[in-house]
Write a structure and sequence with these properties.
The chain is mainly α and 271 residues long. Among the domains are: 55 residues; 78 residues, no CATH class. Helices cover 60% and strands 8% of the residues. A hairpin with a 5-residue loop joins strand 1 and strand 2.
Length: 271
């Protein structure tokens, strides 16, 4: 028997097991890494003695996983996931949509095979067929199935811990991508914001020019140097936000105001 770690077309890890049966060489594929399966488990699957087991996290991650989730927390946590996915009701019964997918024969079979835990078996059956492998719902249903139907709560704890570890890091990666896009959007918006800021500054200077022309007379505003000082004096009294330097909070200097006046004159906004 030979085990080889590979990746499927969706990018998920798989364990390819090749074995000999008489003169024929056969192979089976198990979800997850080969380190997650014991040779004894694989032999039983090959011999048809049991269904394919769920993958266990590799031993180098087990300690890390189990620091994050207590075994006793597994049922409540996983149930909450399935309630959110509208597979279970808050009362732990099947939702109407899920129950409607089963006929009486299937429901009776679940009750016969799993007894009081038949709902968990039904949940696993539904989730494994309607949600993607390694999805949040897949992990949650697997952990509950291990806990209540297969009576392996320790293994369920590992599955739950791996679920949390996986989705915590995936969420961080998604948020990282969103932050990257947000930063890019902010970067792209800088020229637009700068243009709008300049337009507001020009509008304010034009208004102050006309106010000072009324107060001081047009002759006083004829030379740009004089007009700039007059506008500066007016701005000092009111501290208009459009004319403040961001870092210092001070009004822009007369020379800066003077450089804006030719553009305003070209636009016909001042005399």
């Amino acid at each position: 028997m030979n085990k080889v770690d590979e990746v499927d077309s969706a990018g998920n890890p798989i364990c390819v097991v090749t074995y000999s049966s008489g003169l024929t060489e056969n192979s089976i594929v198990l979800d997850g890494r080969c380190a997650g399966y014991s040779d004894d488990e694989i032999r039983k699957v090959v011999a048809g003695q049991e269904d394919r087991p769920l993958p266990m996290p590799s031993t180098d991650l087990l300690d890390y996983y189990f620091r994050n989730v207590a075994q006793a927390d597994t049922p409540d946590f996983c149930t909450a996931v399935l309630v959110e996915a509208e597979v279970l009701e808050d009362s732990d019964s099947l939702t109407g949509v899920v129950e409607s997918t089963f006929d009486k024969v299937h429901l009776d079979k679940f009750k016969t095979e799993a007894g009081k835990n038949w709902i968990i078996e039904a949940v696993a059956f539904y989730v494994f067929r309607n949600f993607k492998t390694y999805s949040l719902e897949f992990y949650a249903a697997s952990a509950l199935y291990e806990t209540y139907v297969l009576k392996r709560p320790f293994r369920a704890g590992y599955i739950t811990a791996e679920m949390i570890w996986k989705f915590k890091h995936e969420t961080s990666a998604i948020l990282g991508q969103k932050n990257k896009k947000a930063l890019q959007a902010a970067e792209d918006a800088k020229p637009i914001k700068a243009k709008l800021k300049r337009e507001k500054k020009l509008d304010r200077v034009a208004k102050l020019w006309h106010q000072q022309a009324v107060e001081l007379g047009n002759n006083a505003m004829r030379k740009d140097a004089n007009a700039a000082h007059a506008i500066y004096a007016k701005a000092l009294k009111s501290h208009y936000p459009e004319l403040l330097v961001k870092k210092s909070g001070k009004v822009i200097e007369p020379d800066s105001i003077k450089r804006l006046l030719p553009e305003l004159r070209d636009r016909g906004k001042i005399g």
